Amino acid sequence: MIAAIPFPDLSSELFSIEIFGMTFALRWYALAYIAGILIGWRIAVTAVKRAQLWPGNHPPATPTQIEDLLTWIILGVILGGRFGYVFFYNAPYYLAHPLEIPMIWQGGMAFHGGLLGVVIATWIWCLRNRAPILSTADLLALATPPGLLLGRLANFVNAELWGRPTDLPWGVIFPGAAAQNCGQAVGELCARHPSQLYEAGLEGLLLGLLLLVLAWRGALKRPGVIAATFFIGYACARIFVEFFRQPDAQFTSDTDAVGYALQFGGAGVTQGQLLSLAMIVAGLVFILRSRRT
Predict the structure, then answer these.
(1) pLDDT digits over 137-167, tens only?
(2) Containing H/E element for 198?
(3) Is the pLDDT assigned to residue 109 strictly greater than 70?
(4) Mean residue pLDDT across the chain
(5) Which residues does residue 128 pair with via DSSP β-bridges, in sequence order?
(6) Residue 265: pLDDT above 50?
(7) Does pTM surpass 0.85?
(8) What is the DSSP string of 122-173?
(9) Half-sphere exposure of 204 (CA within 13 A, CB side)
(10) Higher pLDDT, residue 116 or 90
(11) Strand 267-269 relative to strand 13-19, pairing
(12) Residue 141 to residues 9, 196, 197, 226, Cα–Cα distance (Å)
């Protein structure tokens, strides 16, 4: 027997109903997206209602404008997240099966792609509304961590994106043939790092609390500081967790090693870590812009 935690008896669906022979289900992942967006929206509205937090006591948007911005953000998350997954993580497959690219109900969203989509959507919205880009970026960074927290918890409930094998006592015995295929002896169970929970705690809870404390202690007065903290904080958390996270299936074979990792002295740098390094660079750019402002 190994010291590990059995995976709880959880379903990926909250409930399902059948209408005219078609089954409709509400899944935890969808609920996480919805709840994350709503919580982020309320944080943003609360922040802009406190004019004293912003430079010159002038928030970058009104509560009404945030509702319009929310529409752009949702489009950026969905389109960017999907295309990011397609091109960053599984391009050969989708180039061979292009009709499957829009099938987001089959799974496959990438945070870094969603972030890029949000950046583009926000930039366009700011140009259309003549809103200050740095302060708007701060506002969105402040509102993002709840969605990350709930999204990673949904990953855990779905028993997906689990970590590497471990013999630590908090390892989780995830269900499924893939999760249980880690080279153990016949008849033994495989425990893995609950890397989804690591990310939920670091990227969602810890980073979110840090941003809120900084914002309410005056950091929003310096445009770009909150956004830079988010970029660098998320990147550092993701780089750390990648050491415990199992590589995506399409990057696990030797023939795909170049696509998965660059080898430096025997240490693998994962795709997620490489993309996170780009986020650190973006954070440093925000810091430089903030200092100039």
Answers:
(1) 999 999 999 999 999 999 999 898 899 999 9
(2) helix 195-199
(3) yes
(4) 85
(5) none
(6) no
(7) no
(8) HHHHHHHHT--HHHHHHHHHHHSHHHHHHHHHHHHHTT-S-B-B--STT-EE
(9) 20
(10) 116
(11) unpaired
(12) 34, 21, 21, 7
Min mean pLDDT across 2-11, 73-82, 259-268 is at 259-268
**Amino acid, single-letter form, for residue 230:** F
Q: Is pLDDT of 184 > 90?
A: no
The number of angstroms, rounded, from the C-alpha of 132 to the middle of its chain's C-alpha atoms is 25
CB 122 within 8 A of CB 70: no
Residue pointed to by tokens 């967006």: 37
Q: How far is CA 238 from each of CA 124, 129, 165, 201, 225, rounded to the nearest angstrom?
A: 28, 33, 18, 11, 20
**Structure-block tokens of residue 173:** 């015995």
Question: What does DSSP say about strands 13-19 and 22-27: parallel, antiparallel, or unpaired?
Answer: antiparallel
- Give the contacts of 71 (CB within 8 A, at least 6 positions apart): none
Q: Mind giving me the DSSP string for 184-220?
A: PPTT----B--HHHHHIIIIIIIHHHHHHHHHHTTGG
The separation between CA 271 and the C-alpha centre of its own chain, rounded to angstroms, equals: 14
- What tokens appear for 285 in the block? 């750019």
- Chain centroid to Cα 168, Å, comes to 26
User: CA-CA distance, 257 to 275, in Å (whole number)?
Assistant: 16
**What's the CA gap between 291 and 80, in Å, rounded?**
29
